Amino acid sequence: MTTETTPGSRERLLEAAAALTYREGVSVGVDALCRAAGVSKRSLYKLFESKGELLAASLEEHASAQVTALFPEADDTRPPRERILRVFEQTEAQASDHGFQGCRYLAVQIELKDPNHPASRAAHRIKENLTAFFRTEAERGGANDPDLLARQLMLVFDGAGARAGIDADTRGGLVIPTVTTLLDAANMR
After folding, report:
1. Which residues bind DNA (predicted)?
2. What backbone torsions phi and psi does residue 103 show, to the nearest 5 degrees?
3. What is the pLDDT, as a whole number, of residue 174?
4. Is the distance from CB of 85 to CB of 180 less than 8 angstroms?
């Protein structure tokens, strides 16, 4: 274990936090995080004000990977309806991966129960970005109530991820038809 802050210490801590909290939850201890990252507690606290700040930074760091995995490319010219469906198709594909435990951002918010915790605030911002994407696409697609549709889509997104994460539902066949029904009801093109 290193006792000083090396250039890769921050990245290793962020990766350890992402992996351990996704697998074990946010209650994972500082000792376990430091052990997994191969850094000392002293190094952790030189780099991050608290464990909560480390968790928040880890969530933010992995948000760009989520955007890349779920969202269509910025220059994607498909209609808004298809851009929304792509998010759910990607979500279904991720849910079939071994080790899938649902949305890490929703899990953090549920586990912490404290909306003012740094990790809760980070998770909330990231989830709001997805809601904003749905709202923007709903507006572009002529939905009769873009805000309501965005909230409904988030409900399906979170519910589908949670149910798949606990193996309570089959991985496919339910999400896309549900989203399609919502898009049809909102007159989305």
Report:
1. 29-48
2. -75, 120
3. 85
4. yes
* Dihedral Cα 116, 12, 68, 164, nearest 10 deg: -70
Which pair of tokens denotes residue 122? 């980070």
- 118-121 LR contacts (CB < 8 Å, sep 24+): 118/50, 118/52, 118/53, 118/55, 118/56, 119/26, 119/52, 119/55, 119/56, 119/59, 121/56
Nearest to 187 by CA among 88, 78, 80: 80
- Identify whether the C-beta of residue 45 lies closer than 8 Å to the C-beta of residue 7: no
Which amino acid would we find at residue 114? D
Find the CATH number of the domain harbouring 113: 1.10.357.10
Helical ranges in 71-189 per DSSP H: 80-95, 104-112, 118-140, 146-165, 175-185
Residues 6+ apart with CB under 8 A from 186: 138, 143, 144, 145, 146, 148, 149
The tally of domains found in the chain comes to 2
> Between helices 118-140 and 80-95, what is the axis angle to 10°?
140
User: Does residue 56 form part of some domain?
Assistant: no
What digits encode the pLDDT tens for the residues 53-94?
999 999 999 898 888 888 898 889 999 999 999 999 998 888
For residue 52 the two structure tokens come to 């909560």
Instruction: For residue 109, give its domain range.
Output: 62-185
